[in-house]
Amino acid sequence: MPGKPSSAPKPRSPQPNHGPGEVRIIGGRLKRSKLVVAHHPGLRPTPDRVRETLFNWLGQDLAGLRCLDLFAGSGALGLEAASRGAAWVDLVERDARLAKALTEACTRLGVAAARVHAQDALQFAARCARGSYDIVFIDPPFALADSGLHAAALAAASRLLPAGGMAYIEAPDARQLAAWTDGGAWSVYRRDRAGQVHYAVLQRKAEAGAAE
Fold first, then answer.
1. Are 103 and 116 contacting, i.e. CB atoms less than 8 angstroms apart?
2. Ramachandran quadrant class, 191 (left: phi over 0; alpha: psi -120 to 50; beta: rest)
3. Whole-angstrom Cα distance, residue 176 to residue 212?
4. What is the pLDDT of residues 74-131, one digit of tens each?
5. How far does the chain reach from its first CA to its final CA, in angstroms?
6. Within 10 A of 185 (CB to CB), how many other CB atoms are there?
7. Which pTM does this prediction carry?
8. What helix, strand, coil percent values describe the chain, rounded to 5?
9. pLDDT, tens digit, 9 for 90 and up, residues 132-164
10. C-alpha distances in angstroms, 117 versus 21, 48, 121, 164, 194?
């Protein structure tokens, strides 16, 4: 008795797309513009919901303000600030491939107010003059949350901001965020959580600025 004909081979499931992703700028003159997000260890752009809240806190119009994105990655924070009229944005990213993508994004979007610096964030900050910025964004990879990098970056930001200047920081849990932000040179202006992201805007204390 003849055996059953073998069934036709099932088509293979399509392989997942491992190409670059993207995020969109959510406000300002560049609203809906796309930013490429390369697959890179630790690269985690600030979610849309968080950026929307952040810029509600900071203000929709950043005209005249000087901004520093210390761990720029995809550029989502710094270019969001540029989109909202910041006078100047320094994007610092030590990974050469990501820095190149940032430079290309600035050119493509016509962001003349932004400059990309392919170097270590803390080394860049150490060479800047006191009070060089009005807003500093601090968002290193969460994998480095126990390394002391966030605290070191906040210490650098406290030197770069005048009294009343703002720093933004993200953390993977509330306890770490509190440890980095409570006391010292900072007061907590706003704090919130979205999923696994705990974030805060800090304000440089006036008395810390007066003591220098």
1. yes
2. beta
3. 28
4. 899 999 999 999 999 999 999 999 999 999 999 999 999 999 999 999 999 999 999 9
5. 96
6. 21
7. 0.84
8. 30, 25, 45
9. 999 999 988 866 666 788 889 999 999 999 999
10. 23, 25, 9, 26, 30
